[in-house]
Amino acid sequence: MDAVSLILPLAEITVAGAIINASVHFVPVGGAPAAMATSTGVGTELMAAAGMAAQAGISLTNPVHLALIMLSGAVGSMIMLGLTMLIGQLIYVFGVGVVPAADKCDKDPITGDYQKSYITPGTTGHAIPTVCFISGLIGAALGGIGGGLAYIAFKVLGFSSEVAGVIAVGFFFMNAVLASYNIGGTIEGFHDPKFKKIPNGIVASFVASLVTGVIVAGMALGI
Amino acid sequence: MSHGGGGHASELYPEDQVLVVGAILSIVGIYIAHFASQGGYPQISMLLGGLLAAAATVAGANTTRKVAAYGLGTGVPSIGMVSLGMGTISALAGVLLASTLIKNFGLPSEVIYAIPIIVVVVSVVLGYIVGRLTVNPIGMKIPIMVQSMTKLSLMGALSIMGFCVAYAGGFSPDVFINGAVKNGIIGLAFIAAGMAILHPFNACLGPNESHKRTLTLAVACGLLTWFVFSVAKLDVISSIASVILWAVVYRSFVKQSLNDACEVLYTPELPKKEM
Predict the structure, then answer these.
(1) Higher pLDDT, residue B55 or A43
(2) What CA–CA distance (Å, rounded) separates A188 from A135?
(3) Residue B80 has pLDDT above 90, yes or no
């Protein structure tokens, strides 16, 4: 592999890291739970991509195939997070017995429902209002796309599927935790004031992913 | 994320001492596991390699304790996961960079024996850069964040290398990749070592947290991780040794906890009607 053909995977890895960082800011709760939930989705996508590559002969130069890998990552993550949020919602509503209410906005931006009067005194919101759910799905989709993009970059560099998958998971966790430290606690979704801190996180992930990309490119030279 | 801690925790052993001892023990364990397996004694690989790899998780848990005492709160599990994320990248980088150095830069093939050293260098560099990033764009206000991230990245990398090399029987690229990565054992190392690093302080944090108790739990978690890997390798001697050692250490931890508690209450069932 020569230097020029390393530049595209390096760029893909850097962009993927930034996307992963951004995605964690969308997921309600944020932080380590978001990282773990979306990473399971990414893991499912990696398995799907490896399986497809083994059977149908996915070619890494075909942009349609690449889009398919990223899409499967997005869908896998969205399913994972959607189910997690749904089961959590059922427990909150039928088990704990609270009404979904968000603390950080007066009216739900998507349904227009008023939130303030339904918040239990002494809490800062509970259960998963519609805006948090939609925000979570957007975050999961972005996380899957970012993870898929990183996996594609590692495969193009020439690693075998298993090694690429392991590096992708470690890379995903590093970026997701940088986002979680940026959030500093919990976040409700894209309507939360803390969402405005997202540029700091993207810059940090950009640099960290660039460094990781250089290290991985160095590893790829020796295959 | 801050619970008003704000101060550093009082310690029984200085953090740097525990770190150096942990690092040296785990590197020695990696070399023992490699040379024992290549030399024809594969049984020693998990027995000594696994035991010494637990030293890295104990040192990592100790560093987590020091940095989390500044008030990470819910960030304690995250710091365990980031240490292992960086550790995985560094461990694979160390193993594969050796072949890069041999093929593209013409270094002699003895560089293979320096793989643990390459892992140490890569993990320190990566940890330092990520630590600086958490201070600068991200803005975490913990004074010792940069050095703690560096140390945690190093300990994460050494724990992954330690357990994977003990399982696979060597750190040369073909042995490591075929023995630990292709069959997914590195994923087990990621989560098991990650939990061993983040759990001790996460469980013990609070007022009156004592270094001795946290270190005891850290040693117990390290031994339990060794047990998990011994069972995964179906190594009978290591499994028995690790579970006996774990039981001894964990019993000591439970006794210390009951001793330190002001009063131990067994809450009865709540009454069925208003009293």
Answers:
(1) B55
(2) 8
(3) no
Residue B206 pLDDT exceeds 80: no
Whole-angstrom distance, CA of residue A210 vs CA of residue A15: 9
Q: Is the pTM of this model over 0.90?
A: no
Q: Residue B140 phi/psi, 5° resolution?
A: -80, 140
CB–CB of A221 and B103 under 8 A? yes
Q: Are B153 and B159 in contact (CB under 8 A)?
A: no
Q: What is the pLDDT of residues B153-178, one digit of tens each?
A: 999 999 999 999 999 988 888 889 99
Amino acid at B149: M
Beta bridge partners of A126: A101
| Per-residue confidence band for A77, with pLDDT thresholds at 50, 70 and 90 | confident
Q: Does B70 touch chain A (CB under 8 A)?
A: no
Pull the structure tokens for residue B227.
Answer: 């047990």
Indicate if the pLDDT at residue B21 is higher than 50: yes
Q: Give chain A's domain count.
A: 1
Nearest residue of chain B to residue A200 (CA atoms): B137
Judged by CB atoms closer than 8 Å, whether chains meet at B88 and A31 is answered as no
Tokens of A163: 């090694």
3-class SS letters over chain B: CCCCCCCCCCCCCCHHHHHHHHHHHHHHHHHHHHHHHHHCCHHHHHHHHHHHHHHHHHHHHHHHHHHHCCCCCCHHHHHHHHHHHHHHHHHHHHHHHHHHHHHHHCCCHHHHHHHHHHHHHHHHHHHHHHHHHHHCCCCCCCCCHHHHHHHHHHHHHHHHHHHHHHHHCCCCHHHHHHHHHCCCHHHHHHHHHHHHHHHHHHHHCCCCCCHHHHHHHHHHHHHHHHHHHHHHHCCHHHHHHHHHHHHHHHHHHHHHHHHHCCCCCCCCCCCCCCC
Q: How far apart are CA B48 and CA B46, in angstroms?
A: 6
Q: What ipTM was assigned to the predicted interfaces of this complex? A: 0.81
Interface A–B counts its CB contacts (< 8 A) at 131
Q: Provide the domain limits for residue A52.
A: 4-220
pLDDT, tens digit (0-9, with 9 covering 90-100), for A17-35: 999 888 888 888 755 566 6
Indicate the burial class of B174 (C-beta count within 10 angstroms; 0-12, 13-18, 19 or more).
exposed
The amino acid at residue B227 is: F
B210-266 residue pLDDT tens = 889 999 999 999 999 999 999 999 989 999 999 999 999 999 999 999 888 877 677
Q: Do residue B74 and residue A31 have CB atoms under 8 angstroms apart?
A: yes
Query: Closest to B97 (Cβ–Cβ): which among A160, A162, A218?
Result: A218
Tokens of A214: 């250089």
